[in-house]
Write the structure tokens for this entry.
Amino acid sequence: MNLQQARYKGLKAELELLGISVKTLENTGEIQSSISFYAPVNGYITKVNINNGKLVSPNDLLFEIVDRSHVHLELQVFAKDVPNSKKVNELNARCLVAIAFILPRCTWWAK
């Protein structure tokens, strides 16, 4: 197998991984203007880093997806408030308006 054949087979495999029909491309000569792809996780898109016509590479972050099924709460306590702080078994928390579009249920009770 020569270098050109190896390159052809490699590119053909890449196109098939992207869901592009190589047979259709070879028969018609028409290039698909768009392809569909699916995220490997469930969630909500919170950031879009691409637009129409933008070329991307495998390392580019195209979307940011947030999974709301498991939420963590991180709290910061000012040094002056540490003596008045204590460990609790239950906590009620409300989120800021800025993230309400991501987490519409913005009041939690945790044990």
Summary: The CA atoms of residues 42 and 89 lie 30 Å apart. Residues 1-32 form one domain. The two ends are 64 Å apart (CA to CA).
